[in-house]
From TrEMBL, chains A, B:
GO CC terms of this entry: mitochondrion
Native organism: Paramecium pentaurelia
Classification lineage: Eukaryota, Sar, Alveolata, Ciliophora, Intramacronucleata
One GO term of the biological process aspect: mitochondrial glycyl-tRNA aminoacylation
Protein name per its UniProtKB record: glycine--tRNA ligase
Subunit details: Homodimer.
Length: 626, 626
């Protein structure tokens, strides 16, 4: 019964869905009382519970399954860290402002919207070559640098949309939110733009926890911040957003093979490869084994996480037909990245990037090593000695000691501990330089090349050092939640009767306990049932109000409670209740004594509704009154 | 076997514990690679898992049990909100700086430390009256305002401790971390100092979800930030810290009774009441019913949450003997608060406030109402009409319309919707004032008293409006985690052999799967067992290394894994393993087929180890080799 939920189908339902989101406070703009702040949203009880559930399942699916090290690092991040990572210099969007009012716009957005509007408005009146020019600009505008952007804005006469005023020259605006830590140190800092850096900085500690061995993975669930110039699009583009990220550290010589990938070589996943994009074709399903063999996906480690991501998304209720993995174009990736794929989900606003999977090579560990002078490396250990061309450094320790006194020892220790790659770099550096300055524990120490000799030798070694590569799957929880909500939303024959078909483990509340009519005797049973469910940690909602049962069902359906228990007259005589499933509205009669374990097993996915149907007698409900 | 873990016992173990915390990366200072930032800590895998588990149990114990509305509001908070809440003006500590170096100190801390040092150093040489003076200052210094603090610093010759330099005059330093949202609006904002405001701002939405009825509670788990002047004390005083807060909204006329409190009237909890403190006595156990009856605790609602808090702390592994609830002194409470208690836990650093339980009256809802002109009220609905003295406002609508045109309608609507209390306030205001300015939708509208008449009447009403009061239990997760770690830490006869006696639901990893000796056949069984546990969402750690079993046990003990499965020769013939419990180190022989469900039930607290002992045969292990 899998439905193709394309953009049009989802758009049609959108208005009704928006009403439910607002009426049932699934999420809503934050600070509405104070006029609101763009790009900030509060999750209400329903949205918050779904968020908690998909995070918890992410833990089971990824952290427990792969034995990842989950950590919780801080949001506050000193500037030096983000300088090293490249964010201070490069985490920017081009900003243009209305010259008179100062209103800020994202340059690429305003160019795109202006040109799209002209195309829509002028229609056939627009000359073919002008239209072609517009479309070409729209396609590439997000890659333009300052100069190019300025040129285009002048050439195409782009103005501030509300006023028609001129725009200031495009300037890079850093998207990190700044703050200052402490009254006396006044340490400049930012709110982290991603959770990743915390995992890179803890690499050495985690490597130690793993007994010095790679591969291993770190994981973190937490908030990221992005000072968007002009956020729109609800949960899809927020200034504060929940992420779940994995940094999987691998030996670069081993990342092409991943043992557990064998399970998935026949799994078919829709891919939109670089080639398909170049050929202007649609995504198409590939067997994952073939995708790696044919070189479409760079390595098995990356492919394995694509498979796991796909399975996760399907398991939490994303329609599989509306998932595709899009490969980044060569000019879209960071220079250090060897391959990068986005899990995109089709929603009412089109295909939306919800998970990014990147091979980040050794970029991040290298960056922090360079900035701090601390080594972030692992070692390949051999069972039998291996012959290796080894570059040895021979230091004139006596002279160094004389020159640098106590600091000489630190310098000697530091240089001798360099990795093979770093020794090679140093060797090349001294080909053209007389001296090199090392920053060790905050001191600049100079080492003249006269004090260093290099020797190349073939040696039998028991280990060699290397900087691990990183495969990074990064999940945007808010976007995934929006996708689940859109894909799960349904209307019955009466379109006012809406319901969410959530997977039970994602559902915000697991079951409702209702009475057929308001009645004190029923209330006793309801409270006892609620209490026995709560003891098992199962969330439930009770309703013994004096309204029609149909209305009670409608209320629980509207927030996607998968199972409804109803207490009726028969309950008092036979100690049984009826249990109703949300999508089919079918009901069975179940002894009260069975209920807690039944709901527990249903809501944790241990059994399915179809299992319940075979075990208990169907209950022919009277037509629900409205 | 309950041990009195007083400060001395805990201090003795502290050094060994610190080593484990570091070696196993339970938590560690953040940004160590970059020299570190005081007051920021990263949780490693063990700490992070414990944190997740105590949060999850908090959800079950409070949110599910009380049907609270959990929300997730933003950390970024515009200045206007925190101006209204009082934080911009009053969330400060007094800062003094070294006049030459600029180093900042918290005035109260530096005074205390200086005087304590003098007392310790000079001992008996110190004149009795001087010593008495010092002790009096130490007792009250945290309540001193700027002038008084300045006076004391001058009088007692307090200097910068490292340099002996003079100190600047004390000035209030705001403890919120500032930021700026957006490039063009440049909205001044702060990182929230508590999660509470997000719940107050969403009060109206949540009231609607509850069908307009109070009482109901909101809950939020998330980060708070505090720009401490000079943070020390590890997890006990951080600049970024996880909180779990409840705002329980009640009808002030009903808060003295709370139906579910009846369950706990005989529960004994150690209280340190205002009176006991005044009498310089120790805390003592009270039956909670008596504590309310005797007026020690202000009302049943507050008392109920004290009970639930106590039970929560005990359930997650805090030693009950080391918990007390300390009542705030009258001058320690906010002016609007009618009663306030802290759950304090005894740790190696003494008694530490870990949970605050405050009756905040209507302060917060009032503050945001006043600031925004939006009503944050609930209504008492009556089944039969009730006679009430009602103050009616009669407006001269014609003249208002003439004077204010369109705005007149907004003003009329606004004034007519005032609550009974607000009408009373307005009546009193006009006794002494000619006109009042209302800020409605951002416009200042003036209403002259000539246009308003008041009439008092007895009327039969079906409802009356009121501003709910708030009972606020606020939990510091980091502090509680520190307490659990300290209370659970143990050393065996060999003090190098340490273990944590965590309650299974708090334990970071639920079980380990070990082999007696390294062996490929054993590894197959280990992997199968791990896979079947993971399917149930149970975290486990496998170890098939070639080291002695005793060493493997030591590794899993050190991070508090409660259950260890061992695969041995007999496993291959009888399809059974041994299961060992961490505290007793007793082992039983269990069929493999029983294992997954057994571990699931043990780790969720459905069954206890003693149940396992009665069901399965004891396994006489050979002495563990070290």
């Amino acid at each position: 019964m899998l439905q193709q939920l394309n953009k049009e189908v989802l758009l049609k339902r959108r208005e009704a869905l928006e009403q439910v989101i607002k009426r049932r406070f699934i999420y809503q703009p934050a600070f509405s009382l104070y006029g609101g702040v763009a790009g900030l949203y509060d999750y209400g009880p329903v949205g918050c519970a779904i968020k908690t559930n998909i995070e918890q399942y992410w833990r089971e699916h990824f952290i427990i399954e792969e034995d990842l090290f989950e950590i919780s690092a801080t949001i506050l991040t000193p500037e030096a860290v983000l300088k090293a990572s490249g964010h201070v210099d490069r985490f920017t969007d081009l900003l243009v402002c209305d010259v008179k009012l100062g209103t800020g716009y994202r340059a690429d957005k305003i160019v795109t919207e202006t040109l799209e509007n002209r195309i829509a408005k002028e229609g056939d009146k627009l000359a073919a070559d002008v239209k072609a020019r517009y479309l070409a600009v729209i396609k590439d505008v997000d890659t333009f640098k300052e100069d190019k952007m300025k040129e285009i804005i002048a050439e195409l006469q782009i103005k501030a949309p509300e006023t028609g005023n001129d725009l200031t020259d495009p300037t890079p605006f850093n998207l990190m939110l700044p703050t200052i830590i402490g009254p006396s140190t006044k340490l400049p800092a930012y709110l982290r733009p991603e959770t990743a850096q915390g995992m890179f900085l803890n690499f050495a500690r985690l490597l130690e926890q793993n007994g010095g061995r790679v591969p291993f993975g770190a994981a973190q669930i937490g908030l990221g911040f992005r000072n968007e110039i002009a956020p729109r699009g609800g949960l899809l583009r927020c200034r504060e957003f929940q992420m779940a990220e994995i940094e999987y550290f691998v030996d670069p010589s081993e990342k092409s093979t991943f043992k557990k990938f064998n399970k998935y070589i026949n799994l078919e996943i829709p891919l939109l490869s670089r080639q398909l994009q170049a050929d202007a074709k649609l995504h198409q399903p590939y067997k994952m084994g073939d995708a790696v063999k044919e070189g479409i996906i760079n390595n098995e480690t990356l492919a394995y996480f694509i498979c796991r991501t796909y399975l996760y998304l399907v398991e939490i209720g994303i329609n599989p037909i509306n998932i595709r993995f899009r490969q980044h174009q060569a000019d879209e990736m960071a220079h250090y990245s060897s391959d990068c794929w986005d899990a995109e989900i089709e929603m009412s606003s089109g295909w939306v990037e919800c998970v990014g999977l990147a091979d980040r090579s050794a970029y991040d560990l290298n960056a922090h090593s360079t900035a701090t002078g601390q080594k972030l490396q692992a070692a390949r250990k051999f069972k039998v000695p291996q012959p290796r061309q080894v570059l040895q450094i021979i230091l004139d320790k006596q002279k160094i000691g004389k020159e640098l006194k106590k600091d000489g020892m630190s310098l000697i220790k530091y240089v001798e501990a360099l990795s093979d790659d770093e020794k090679q770099d140093l060797f090349e550096y001294y080909q053209n330089n007389e001296e090199k300055i090392f920053n060790i524990d905050g001191k600049d120490l100079t080492l003249n090349r006269q004090l260093v000799k290099f020797e190349k030798k073939t040696m039998n070694v028991m280990e060699e050092k290397f900087i691990p590569h990183v495969i990074e799957p990064a999940f945007g929880i808010g976007r995934i939640l929006q996708a689940i909500i859109e894909h799960s939303f349904n209307q019955r024959d009466d379109p006012q009767k809406t319901f969410f078909k959530f997977s039970p483990r994602v559902a915000p509340v697991k079951c409702s306990i209702l009475s057929v009519v308001q009645n004190e005797e029923f209330d006793v049973v309801i409270q006892e049932l609620a209490s026995s469910l709560k003891k098992l940690g199962i969330s439930c909602k009770t309703d013994n109000a004096g309204v029609a049962l149909g209305k009670k069902y409608a209320r629980t359906d509207e927030i996607g409670i998968p199972f409804a228990i109803t207490v009726d007259k028969e309950t008092l005589t036979t100690q049984s209740i009826t249990l109703r499933e949300i999508e089919t509205t079918k009901q069975v009669r179940v002894p009260i004594v069975d209920v807690p374990r039944l709901i527990l097993e249903l809501s944790s996915g241990l059994i399915l509704w179809t299992d319940v149907l075979t075990k208990y007698p169907l209950f022919a409900a009277k037509e629900e009154d409205a």
